[in-house]
Specification:
Layout lengths: L1 E6 L3 H12 L4 E4 L7 H6 L4 E2 L8 E2 H13 L7 E2 L4 E7 L2 E6 L3 E9 L5 E4 L13 E2 L12 E5 L3 H11 L4 E5 L9 H9 L3 E3 L2 E8 L3 E8 L5 E5 L2 E4 L3 E4 L7 E2 L2 E3 L11 E3 L4 E2 L7 H19 L10
Parallel strand pairs: 1-2, 1-8, 2-5, 8-21, 10-17, 11-12, 11-17, 12-13, 20-22
Antiparallel strand pairs: 3-4, 6-7, 7-8, 9-18, 14-15, 15-16, 19-20
Bound molecules: flavin-adenine dinucleotide.
């Protein structure tokens, strides 16, 4: 039986895992997404964070990378199981049986750091979208689009970055955005013209046409409502992320988990910290969540090792 299962590898889960390895707890981190970082990596990786202690500024992704590096420097870092979502947990003798999307784990304690829930890419929202095999929500391997005609949907920094990356290899690249102005950095938007990317604004997708693959994209002009078609080999969707919170059988205040001063929920030895936790005066930011991790991990160590002399400083 594990000492601890930490659920979520956002900043607070990662820091809690760091502390758990310092306390020499035997545990595992479950992360529902295929990558770590929570809101910082999914929603604002390039943003400069200026309210963390000790940093004049650090990008959100830079902070996640630093937490990961710190964790990997530990003698026994906790493993992080990516793409493994906590589904439910039930009390058993001496702890809990945790059921995940991949199996079950027995653990003495659970630390929920599930924040806004598991993120997934926002879809186009048109009929039959899920039946096509050439709609891509995350650009991993651009080489397979060599000499192809592709359309990128979206107007933010990463949509523009994808368009620029694909323009190096594809035959033709369209970028389709519902507004006339792109939300990306102006230097990147200027680079679209230099790289020959065709900007189509203000357009939205009206229909996807094809058999197993989308072969034609039907667009509609937002102002005139006129339709236009594009022949494509692949469609890249970059409309940001949506989150789906998981519900747990603990006392809640709204969507958040009510905790006591040790961050224990209404269920014995099930703790919650970070954005998912609720108590009077809770501030939903990174620094407050990091402090909560210290208290919760210390308490968990005390519960598991009642006779251990637990250091306050390392
Ligand atoms: C645009 C924006 C800017 C911000 N700027 C700042 C700032 O400048 N300074 C600051 O201090 N704060 C800032 N915040 C707030 C900060 O991002 C949050 O306080 C912080 O992300 C909370 O971290 P967390 O680890 O609790 O949750 P999250 O970051 O939400 O991470 C939760 C993780 O848990 C995973 N998860 C959820 N459910 C499950 C499940 N059932 N099974 C497995 N994994 C699961 C998710 O996939 C996710 O990775 C900002 C927030 C936003 C949206």
């Amino acid at each position: 039986m594990k000492d601890i299962v930490i659920v979520g590898a956002g900043p607070i889960g990662l820091y809690a895992a760091n502390l758990a390895s310092l306390h020499e707890l035997d545990g595992v981190v479950l992360e529902g997404q295929e990558s770590i970082g929570g809101q910082l990596s999914a929603l604002y990786p390039e943003k400069d964070i200026i309210d963390l202690p000790g940093f004049k500024k650090i990008t959100a992704q830079g902070f996640i990378d630093a937490l990961k590096e710190q964790m990997n420097s530990r003698v026994h870092p906790l493993p992080i199981n990516l793409a493994e979502e906590l589904k439910e947990f039930q009390p058993i003798e001496g702890g809990y049986l945790v059921t995940t999307s991949k199996g079950t784990i027995e653990t003495k304690t659970i630390l929920l750091t599930t924040g806004m829930g598991v993120f997934s890419p926002r879809k186009i929202g048109v009929e039959n979208e899920d039946t096509f095999t050439n709609i891509i929500y995350s650009l991993k391997d651009k080489s397979q689009y060599k000499d192809k005609t592709v359309a990128i949907l979206g107007g933010g920094d990463s949509a523009v970055d994808w368009a620029l990356m694909l323009s190096e290899i594809a035959k033709k690249v369209y970028i389709v955005h519902r507004r006339n102005e792109f939300r990306a950095q102006s230097s990147s938007v200027e680079a679209l013209d230099q790289k020959g990317v065709i900007k189509l604004t203000p357009y939205v997708v009206n229909r996807l046409i094809g058999e197993k693959e989308v072969s034609t994209l039907e667009l509609q002009d937002v102002n005139t409502k006129e339709l236009k078609t594009l022949d494509v080999d692949a469609v890249f969707v970059n409309y940001g992320m949506v989150s789906a919170p998981t519900s747990f059988p603990v006392e809640k205040v709204g969507p958040n988990i009510k905790v006591n001063s040790f961050y224990m929920s209404s269920m014995e030895n099930v703790f919650a910290i970070g954005n998912i936790a609720y108590y009077d005066g809770k501030v939903k930011n990174i620094t407050s969540g990091l402090g909560e991790a210290v208290t919760a991990i210390t308490k968990i160590d005390q519960i598991i090792h009642p006779n251990k002399n637990i250091p306050i400083h390392y």
